[in-house]
Amino acid sequence: MAADQENTPEARRAAALAPLPDHRNVDTPWWQELWRRHAHITTPLRERGLECDIEFGLSAYIVRVSLPDGSCLIIGPPQEPPSDRPPGNPEGWIATREHPDNPSLFEVLYDSAPSDDPGAPQRPEARHGGSAQPLIESIDYRLAQLGLLPTPFSPTARTPVSAAEPALRTPEPADVSGNADRAFVYGDVLLALTDRLNATESPPDAAALLHQILDPTSGLLERLGEFFEAAAEKAKESEQDDGFDLHYDLQDAAATLRSLGEDLHTAVDRMRALAPARRTTRAGLPPGPSPGPPTATTPVPGRTR
Question: What is the pTM of this model?
Answer without folding.
Answer: 0.51
